[in-house]
Structure formats: structure tokens, C-alpha cells
Amino acid sequence: MSSMGGRDLESGGTKNTSRAPPQAAAVSSSSSSYAYDPETHWTSWLVPMFVVANIAVFIVAMYINDCPKNNIGLQGNCVARFLGRFSFQPLRENPLLGPSSSTLRKMGGLEWDNVVNKHQAWRLVTCIWLHAGIIHLLANMLSLVFIGIRLEQQFGFGM
After folding, report:
1. Where are its TM segments located (predicted)?
2. Euclidean distance between CA atoms 87 and 79, whole angstroms
3. Do 64 and 117 reside in the same domain of the chain?
């Protein structure tokens, strides 16, 4: 048996002999450094703000894209034309339902040649906010919400 045998790590290393659940033991233990206190529960605000900012940037990208005006029809017709200016590029050009690659480039998409040879280091920051399409945006935002809010509540904002 190891030296840790019989010790309950969740309650600060002391042996938990009570019938109470481990969460209750952690709250009641004075030696525990991490005790859940509902009075100090963290409300996440940073992650939802990032989600809103990402969606706003995607809407701006679709506005700038303006598929009905800029699509010359070589790859097919715009998808969801009822959206007007916000319709998506043809699926052959962008299967993720989003703007054209030229729009993403114009808005600061990451191209190593521009960063290295043309000294456009700002693209290293702007590319973080750009998404190739609705599917890309949805996958990233779901990951951010499910993981990010939990982390923000666990560790706080760092203040």
C-alpha cells in the first residue's frame, strides 16, 4: 500500500470517515485550500463577450463579402440567396458556408508571405477573429462556451 493510502485528497489530505459526499467534506474541512463557497461563485462574462465579438466579426465579414455582387458565377450561385448581401459563397468555393478567401484575406487572414516579407504582423492578431464559415464559427464557439466558461468559473479572470 502506498503512503497516500487512506488519505482523501479532495478534503485536503485528511481521511474522510464521514458519510457526507466529498463536496460537503471539502467545504467542512478547514485544512482545504479549495472550498466551494456558493457566495463567491464566479459569473462568467469574458467568454460570452468573446463569442459575441466573434459573431460580430463574422457578420461584418459576410457584409463585406457581398456574394451576389462579387460572385462572377464560375463556381456556381451563392448559397442562401434570400439573405441578400449576407448570402454565402458557392459550396464549391467554400463548403463551410462563409465568405470568399479574398474577403478573408482583405480582412486580415493569415498569409505567411504578407507577415514575413511585407511586415504585416497585425495579421497574427486579426486572423484569430476570422472564421471561414458558419460551420467553423459554430464549432469554435461551442468549444469556447463549453470549455471556456468552465475554465473562467474555475480560475476566474485573473484579478
Report:
1. 42-64, 128-149
2. 6
3. yes
